[in-house]
Batch of 4 targets.
Target 1
Amino acid sequence: MSNLKIGIIMSTTRPNRKSEPIAKWLKTYTDQNRDAVYDIIDLNDYNLPLFGDESNMDGVKAFNEKINQFDGFIFVLAEYNHTVPAALTNAISWTQEVFHNKAAGIVSYGAVGGARAAEHLRNVLAQMHVASVQAHVLLSLFHDFDENGFKPLDIHQKNLNLITNQVEAWSKALKTLR
């Protein structure tokens, strides 16, 4: 599966966001344990305008070109106000076919592990023709973070292995449709 490319999408653009250390944790794991190539996709790198504002489409074009390079994704999903962060909703709104027939997993975080946002994102992904896998890593703001930052509990390793196995298998299978 060395030719398989999986994007790790950080869902928020806020300063001091928790998605950055989570994405790095995921990337470190995949670099050491997986044959597929994983890369972090930071929404801050694209300067995406609000959906509908077509005054500067350079970021939109670059974001679509980047997403098109990947066979599957793992979303590092924050839960804001019981749903998906606005930055991710906006980014997805600027895409269409580049997400079609690809697989995705969700590593979410929040007060209750980001579960509510994950359910919302699964509905959005289905509309985008993205197959979301069953495995899910839910990180708690109360148990997986402390005053020194992100300290994931060991129990997440099993689900991390499951999610990467499923995203890679589904991404490989869906590649035949593109």
Note: The CA atoms of residues 80 and 166 lie 26 Å apart.
Target 2
Amino acid sequence: MGKTGKIVTIVLWALLIVSAVLIVSLMVNIEEDIPTDPAMNSWVNTNLIWAYILTAIGAGIAIFAGLANTATDKKAAKGGLISLVFMGGVVLVSYLLASPEIPQFIGVEKFLNDGSLNASVAKLVDTGLYATYILLAIAVLSIAGMSVARLFK
């Protein structure tokens, strides 16, 4: 194991130890009265913040590793760019198909009155639905197409 491997191992053990100490501390100090006990709220908040930190570190490492791989591998960069253009196309087609019309359902007045539902929100929701339908259709067609292609081989 090289120098980098040792450093990574040490960092992972340190993260594991901190996580274990926080979880054990939370479990030891747990009480029945969580909403009214400020000390318990503090332990819960500390564990949540630690979870957010670990999630951010993991996401950052994943993004960095992906970008590093893309920067060093031209074929991966080309594939990634094609994927981004394809997703952009799906979103564009979905947005063009989407309607800003507000749907009518029981209780819609509540959302209209508090401002959480308006024409732009309705259009974005419609865009998301159309994108989901388009991607589902592409997935089903590609699965069916591969099955048919295997029959002819």
Note: The chain is about 80% helix and 0% strand.
Target 3
Amino acid sequence: MKKICLAFLVCLGVASCAMADGAGIENGRLRPCPGSPNCVVSEGSNASVVPFFIKGQQGWERLRQAVVSQGGSIEREDEGYLYATFRSRLFGFVDDLECRRDGTMVQVRSASKVGWWDLGANRRRVERLRQALLPDGEK
């Protein structure tokens, strides 16, 4: 019964929302999240997570390593911007992760490409990355 309910919820979620409209910077910032609960962002009026704090190029490199070690595929990287995708194990859904360097902070946006609700997957991803960026003594 649980599998049937889960399959129904997934189908409903996929059918209820169109694909996300890509990634990138708009007016010098990460795009805001849509009204659906499958996205978190650290900047703008609808910020729902705190940005990451890093130190220098080593901090940026630690971020890159954390993304890859947690299953992300870095698709594009420009000066101070990183775009990666993550694929869910069960159904193979693809989520976007964007990071924009902002001084010693890294603004972050993680969003599902399809569906309405992600069961908190994007928020958990951001928090796992945050933990990976903490100095070893603070973990």
Note: The longest strand covers residues 94-102.
Target 4
Amino acid sequence: MPSYISPHFTQDKFDSPSLDDLIDVLEDRVCYWVLEPAKVLLEDPIRQVPGFLLLLTYFEGIWVYVQGCDSRGQSRKFFQEGFIDVFRCAGIGQYLLTSIAGVLYEDARCGFFHDGIFRDRIVFKRLEKGELLVTLPKRNGQIDETGEIESILVDTGRFSAAVERHFKGFLTCLRDPNKIEQRYKFERICQDKWRWDEGTIIGLPDPTSKVT
């Protein structure tokens, strides 16, 4: 029985893989293990919580492939930089984006995985525009943009769409033969993490087969 290394590819995909093969596997894994399941969950008011959690796995992970190096010992840094890269076109300043990423890392990602629940500052809400709305403290009657974030309102549908756009853009970059440096970084980290040349592939049973 073949082992599947992603939803649609067996271990044969790693028999002397080309760069295109590696890109195919990343696309298959992220699309069908992260983005598509997250979108299904986000359609339900209760299940949008695990859907949002799935999306939060994207930032640190994608930044590993962008940078071409492991995030070991730098989890928060990679999460923040990946988040900033996704939302740098959202019209939010760099300082505030970094602060938002920090809150999401602490209160959402770490909150759920360490405490079993989001911490206080994360709120889901359908917004009139944008993916995120931040509430900040006031000082002398004025909003203090350097102050600690009080809450983050997240439009999960738009948030998901922004992550998906970023991933499509990254795939386009990887498939461009002129992006030599980025393609090299990606191939290097894939070889380091996926280790197909060492003869051991950890795979899954046929994901389309039914368990009896």
Note: The chain has one domain: 11-198.
